[in-house]
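Lecture notes, unit on protein representations.

Consider one protein chain, 229 amino acids long.
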Amino acid sequence: MGGQACVLYGAAEFSRDTDFAILASTANLSRLRVALADLKAEVIAVPPFELKYLRKGHAIHFRCHASEADGMRVDVMTKMRGVDSFAKLWHRRVTLQAEDGTSYELMSLPDLVKAKKTQRDKDWPMIRRLVEADYFRHREEPKRSRLGFWFLELRTAELLIELAAEHPKVSRKLIKQRPLLKIAGSATEIDLTEALSEEERLEREADRQYWIPLKAELEQLRRARLRSV
């Protein structure tokens, strides 16, 4: 997940770290500890590397010191706002194979887009690029599942209007899931752009609210760590 997945999906992004969605189980964390030891990775911030924090929705941050990955940051999470459980993410994963035979398990594109709906400024242009790249790659022969994905996630007024004109029945069926589709077939680009901006604002605020208690807990952990030094 994260920037590296965006690169593999064709929406290039320079990323200084690697993010992983993981299964938060005792056995799996034991395997992860072995991999992190190979990377000579250390926790670089709160919270500590414990199951309870992953299950609450925190990310655990590591810095690698092995020569092959010196300085690389690794972040792991298991729970994200608005995103399904790891079991469902794994079931819907996309597997890519490199020329050297290495397999990469990616969060599905719809799941990755949901995970990117944060309060961070950098994530929204990336969402737009991810969805548009998929749209332009497959719009000549769209599958029904892709049509639904585009209607629910496209962030460009011009393309939503174009899509609604070509597939009005699909658009109408998805209005309950995305209310702004109600105007996609008749609105001007200006009106629809304003609706998209308001939709983004609400998502950012929802993410901000989600993180308020988690950030408060992180601050308590920071203070406790400082007192123990």
